[in-house]
Structure formats: C-alpha cells, structure tokens
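User: Predict the structure for this protein chain, please.
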Amino acid sequence: MKKYILFYNPASGHAVFKKKLDWMISSFQKRGLLLIPYRTKKSGNEAFCDVVKALDPEGLVVAGGDGTVNEIINLMMQHRIDLPLAIIGCGTSNDFATYLQINRDMNAYFDRIAAGMTRPIDLGCIDNTYFINVASAGMLSSVAHEVDVRLKNALGKIAYYIKGLGELPKIRSFPITIVSDGKAFQTEVFLFVVTNSSVVGSMKNIGTNIEVDDGKLDLLAIRKCSIPKLMTILADLLAGKPISEKKYVYHAQAKEFELSSSDFLQSDLDGEEGPALPLHIKTVHHALRVYA
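Assistant: Here is the predicted structure, written as structure tokens:
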C-alpha cells in the first residue's frame, strides 16, 4: 500500500478540516493508499522533515490555506525533499489551489493522486525563501497578517474586505525601481505583485498569459493615478477581469526581478510577512511536482 503523509493545519479556514480528516483517510484507503496525518503547530514544524525521511512516502499532501502551502514548500526545498505534492485548499484564501481548479471535484482529484498524475511548476525565491504563488508590497498587502484569526474563522474572505476598506483612507503611492532581467524601469505605484499564477488575493484572472510552468514570473504594478481610476481597476479585479493591459498597470514577465524603493516597504509572501525591500526575486523553473 502506497504511503502519503498529510501535513494539515487544524486552524486553517473555519478550523473545520479536522472534522474531514476521517473522510480524507477513508477516501485514500478506498484507492489503496495509506494517508498518515501530521498535525502542524503554529511554528517550528521542521520535525516533519524527519518524519518524511523515516516513512519514505510516495508523496505528500498539504491541507490548509496559502500560508500552510508556503510553509511546506519551504520545508521541502530547504531540506531537499523531492516528492510530488497534493494541495487541499481549506484556508480562508486558497489561491494556488483555485488556479489549479483542485477543489472543484475532490474525488476526481484523489483519483489523479492515485494514478500519479503530476505536473511541474515553478517557484519564486528570495534569499533562500520560496513562494508558490505571490510576492507583493504596498497598498493592502499587510491586510492578511493584520486580520484577527477569530475574525477570519468567523467571516472567511469577508474579513479581508472589511479590513481592506478600513485601509483605503491610508492609500499612498511610493517610488520604485523595477529591474526585469536586467532592464530597469522607474515609476510610482500603489502596489505591486510578482505572481506565479493568475489568481491573487481570491481575485481570479488578474492578467493574461500568466503560467505556472513557463520559467518566468509576472510582475503587475498599479501605477499612481487618480482615486476614481484606481477604484475602477480594483473593481475590475474584484469582478475577475484581467488588468494586465490597463493603462495604469505595468506588466512585465521575467526570470529575475530586482525591486527597490527609497521608502520602507515590507513584502508579503503567499499571505505571510516577508522581507523588506530591496528584493531580488528569482524563478526556480520546474522546482516542484504537483498532483493536478
């Protein structure tokens, strides 16, 4: 019987995944697969890597939100764990799982895991810290860390929007120098995202020609403009319309980005607090195999 280790966050989303744990184990067993659960802690889950090496599984499964997925891919990359990864999106925001359309039919997804159907995907890397979906900074980027866990569990994505509305009066632009594969560009922006997929912050299809396996990352930055024009761009984002071709949106694809600003800016990596600018972001081509 093939073994899989489940890295699950009991607090993700509405903290209800633990009620689905038996269903997950049963679903795997029906397919001749043994699912071994590993319950994560708030911090310090390095012991998981020892468990993986001791059990020698066929693959790994992560259940949680974007932050939990970020944690396991960093453990895998830093400890050189070369195993395929299944993603069960059960957090407040599940951007990468949404992009891969994993949660649409879980039974079909389990069948694909049993069949060993994987695809290679790229990762972003900043000073040996990896992200699977997005690195960002600027307007609203700190909202994910500032929303109270109890509020997230009670209200889900609405909690982010409530917090975001409270941040709107503080909107300010900042100067930025963007170097894309050696080509420099200076401008003033409200925010930027360097993304691997086209789903960011629960907003689908933010840009065109964005792929997770093309060896490049995409940078989209909302440039300084009037508040009404900014609201129009944000409205399109919320409506699921791509903004990469909009007049006040700067879009670049590159293997490497260097981002710097004279202002102090803290970054966000997959919804978790990242390093302050300047950032040197590299694409790691086909760094991970994902069941999809």
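The chain is about 25% helix and 35% strand.
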